[in-house]
Amino acid sequence: MIPTSYYLALSAILFAIGVAGVLLRRNAIILFMSIELMLNSANLVFVAYSRQFGTLDGQIMVFFVMTVAAAEVAVGLALIVTIYNSKASIDVDDASTLKG
Questions:
Q1: 13-28 tens-digit pLDDT
Q2: Quick one: which of 26, 31, 48, 84 is 20 to 30 A from 76 by CA?
Q3: What does DSSP assign to residue 88?
């Protein structure tokens, strides 16, 4: 039996890596990967507590988070492709020049 604290520590590490990726990188694809990493670390916490308390509530919540993450990726990648076609760059700082 692996203690729940190990899962929480792993989740905290993954979330910190994701935050570092969002704050330090300017590439839009890396930014989306970092956001997905943070969402997956939250999913790990939901599943760990669901396992600890013996309920399915956390695992059901993971399905909702995964649905939101899939929608975010679909819309986000469409925006990245559109920005790349107009600017020939996926740098986040270049996207700020698209203001009207």
A1: 999 999 999 999 888 8
A2: 48
A3: S
